[in-house]
Design goal:
This is Adhesin. Keywords: Signal. InterPro entries: Autotransporter_pectin_lyase_C. The chain has about 525 residues and is mainly β. It is built from three helices and 40 strands. The two termini are about 40 Å apart. The strands form three sheets. It has a 23-stranded mixed β-sheet that branches. It is elongated and about 75 Å long. Strand 38 and strand 39 form a beta hairpin.
Length: about 525
C-alpha cells in the first residue's frame, strides 16, 4: 500500500472517540437501548418502560390490545363508517387472533398519546389501524386515517399479520407516528396511498424491530420531522411509481443487512444539513446501530437499489450516500442523482464515533457500489477501515475523483485496517472522467473502458511506481494494483425478485406486480 500511504493525510479521518456515548435509535423511534443490552424495553426521553422488548428477533409483547372496532378471531366488515379512538394505547381498528377486517370508505380517527414509545413503535399499541398475529388480515380501501397523538402510526402490521391497503390517505401530526409500518414479520401491501407525517421519527414507509415487509405501488409521500425519511428499513421496503418529499430528513435510511428497492419513482429531500443523530448530512444513510432493532435481516448485505428514478437532495455538505458500521450493496440504473457535487460527496464510507454505532477504529463500512447504464458525479471517499468497490458497468460514466483518509482510531496493522479502501472497476462500455489527481488502491479497466479527463484525453495511470498507461492528460491516477480484467458478482446486479403482490391484486382486481 505504498501509494496509498503516501496519499493519506495523517490529519484526516476520524479522531478517536472520548467519553461515554449511548446507542441512539436513529429513525424509527425516539427510544433507545443501553449499549450491551439491546431491546431491554427502555424508552428514550419522555417515554416509559414497555412490557416488551426482551427478544428483538421474536414477537414478545406481553400486554393486551384494545380498539374502538375489533375483529378478534372473527370476520368483520364495515362500510361508510366513522370510527374514533381517544384513549391512550387504543387503536381505532384492530384485527387479531386470525380475524379478518374489511373496511371500505372508512374514516378512522386517533387521538391521545401512547404511554410507551417502545410499545407504540414495535407492537402498534397506539396505531390507527393494527393487524397482529399470523393469519390476521385487514383490508382497507377508499378510506381516510388521521392521528394527532404521539406514537400513533397510521397502518401497522406485526407478528406476521397482513394489511392490504388501497386508495387511502394517511395523516399523522406527532412524533413516532409513521404512515405504513411493519414489525416482527408483518406485511403491508399498498397501492394509491397518500401519506403525510409531521412529527419526528415518523417515516412514511417503515419497518422496524423483528423485520417486516412494505410494498407500495403508486403513492405520494411527505414527511416534515427530524429523523423522518420517506423510507426507513430494518426489513424490506419496496416502492414503484411513488413521489415523495422529506423536508426535515433525508430520502431514505436503512439499518442492518436489509433492503430498499426503488423503481420509477421521484424522491426528494429539501433538508440541507444533518438530521437526527447523523454523523454527517446525507441523502441516503446505510448503517448499523447497537439498538438491536435491526438484528433481523433480509440478506448477507444491506441492499439498496434504484432504477428509472430520481433521487434529489439539497444537502450542503456530507455525502449523497453515507455508509458506516455496515456491509452494503448499492445498484443504480438509469437513475438521476440530483445534488450539489461541489458541496457533498457522492460516496462516503467511514467509521464513526458519534452514536456508539460499533467500536471506534473497527466500525467502518464495506460497500459494493454499482452503476448500470448510469450517470454518476461526485467524489468518492473512504477511510482506512472501510472498503469501497465502485463498479462502472453497461455504459456508466462516473465524473469525479477519489480520496482515502486515515482513521486515527485504528492502529496501523490492526485487523480492522482495509487492504484496499477504494477499488474502481470500469467495464468495456463505461468511462471514468477523472476530475483531479487521484490515489486509490486498485483500478481494473476492461478492454474498451476509458479513463479520461473532462476533455476526453487519456489519463496517465501509475502502478507500483511504474507508468502502466501513458496518457496525454495532465491528470494522473496512482494505484497499488492495476489490471485489465473486471470481475463482477451477484452483488452488482439488480434484484430478480420483489415482494409478491398477488394478494393485493386479488383483493382489489388490480395488476401491480413489478420487477427491478
Amino acid at each position: 500500500m505504498i501509494a496509498i500511504a503516501a496519499a493519506i493525510s495523517l490529519a484526516g479521518g476520524l479522531a478517536a472517540g472520548a467519553g461515554t456515548t449511548f446507542a441512539i435509535r436513529h429513525f424509527a423511534a425516539a427510544s433507545s437501548s443501553a449499549p450491551g443490552a439491546p431491546g431491554n424495553g427502555q424508552s428514550g426521553p419522555g417515554g416509559q418502560n414497555g412490557q416488551g422488548g426482551a427478544n428483538t428477533m421474536s414477537y414478545d409483547y406481553a400486554g393486551s390490545y384494545s380498539a374502538a372496532l375489533t375483529a378478534d378471531g372473527t370476520d368483520k366488515t364495515s362500510k361508510n363508517a366513522t370510527t374514533a379512538a381517544t384513549k391512550a394505547d387504543q387503536n381505532a381498528a384492530l384485527v387479531q387472533n386470525g380475524g379478518s377486517l374489511t373496511l371500505t370508505d372508512a374514516t378512522l380517527k386517533k387521538s391521545g398519546d401512547g404511554s410507551s414509545d417502545d410499545n407504540d413503535n414495535f407492537y402498534g399499541t397506539n396505531s390507527v389501524l393494527l393487524a397482529v398475529g399470523e393469519d390476521s388480515k385487514a383490508t382497507i380501501s377508499g378510506s381516510k386515517l388521521t392521528a394527532t397523538g404521539s406514537g400513533s402510526n397510521g397502518i401497522f402490521a406485526t407478528d406476521s399479520a397482513t394489511v392490504l391497503a388501497n386508495n387511502t390517505t394517511i395523516s399523522t401530526t406527532s412524533a413516532n407516528s409513521r404512515g405504513l409500518d411493519a414489525t416482527y414479520g408483518g406485511t403491508i401491501l399498498a397501492g394509491s396511498i397518500t401519506a403525510t407525517t409531521k412529527g419526528d421519527h415518523s417515516a412514511t414507509l417503515a419497518t422496524d424491530r423483528g423485520g417486516g415487509s412494505v410494498s407500495l405501488v403508486k403513492g405520494t409521500l411527505n414527511t416534515a420531522g427530524s429523523g423522518s425519511p420517506l423510507l426507513y428499513s430494518t426489513g424490506d421496503v419496496q416502492v414503484n411509481d411513488v413521489t415523495g418529499t422529506a423536508t426535515g430528513s433525508q430520502i431514505a435510511g436503512m439499518e442492518g443487512l436489509n433492503t430498499i428497492l426503488i423503481s420509477n419513482s421521484t424522491l426528494t429531500s429539501t433538508n440541507t444539513g444533518k438530521t437526527g443523530s447523523d454523523p454527517v448530512a446525507n441523502g441516503v444513510i446505510i448503517y448499523q446501530s447497537t439498538s438491536g432493532d435491526a438484528e433481523a435481516s433480509t440478506g448477507e448485505h444491506a441492499t439498496f437499489q434504484a432504477k428509472d428514478s430520481t433521487l434529489k437532495s439539497a444537502i450542503e455538505s456530507g455525502s449523497m450516500f453515507y455508509f458506516t458500521n455496515t456491509t452494503a450493496d448499492v445498484v443504480l440504473s438509469n437513475t438521476t442523482l440530483d445534488f450539489d457535487t461541489d458541496a457533498a460527496n457522492l460516496i462516503q464510507a467511514e467509521g464513526n464515533d458519534s452514536n456508539n454505532w460499533g467500536q471506534a477504529g473497527s466500525n467502518g463500512a464495506t460497500v459494493n457500489f454499482t452503476g448500470r447504464n448510469q450517470q454518476l458525479r461526485g467524489k468518492v471517499t473512504a477511510d482506512t477501515i472501510s472498503t469501497v468497490n465502485l463498479y462502472l458497468l453497461e455504459g456508466t460514466t462516473w465524473t469525479g475523483s477519489a480520496s482515502i483518509s486515515k482513521n486515527t482510531s485504528a492502529s496501523d496493522g490492526s485487523d480492522s485496517v482495509s487492504d484496499a479502501p477504494i477499488t474502481v472497476n470500469v467495464d468495456g462500455k463505461s468511462t471514468w472522467v477523472v476530475t483531479a489527481d487521484t490515489t486509490i488502491s486498485a483500478l481494473n479497466v476492461a478492454s474498451g473502458g476509458k479513463v479520461v479527463d473532462s476533455s476526453g484525453r487519456t489519463v496517465t495511470i501509475k502502478s507500483d511506481g511504474k507508468t502502466v498507461v501513458s496518457g496525454d492528460s495532465d491528470l494522473t491516477v496512482t494505484v497499488d494494483s492495476y489490471s485489465t480484467t473486471v470481475k463482477t458478482t451477484n452483488d452488482t446486479k439488480l434484484a430478480s425478485d420483489t415482494i409478491d403482490r398477488s394478494d393485493f391484486d386479488s383483493a382489489f382486481g388490480t395488476s401491480t406486480e413489478w420487477t427491478m
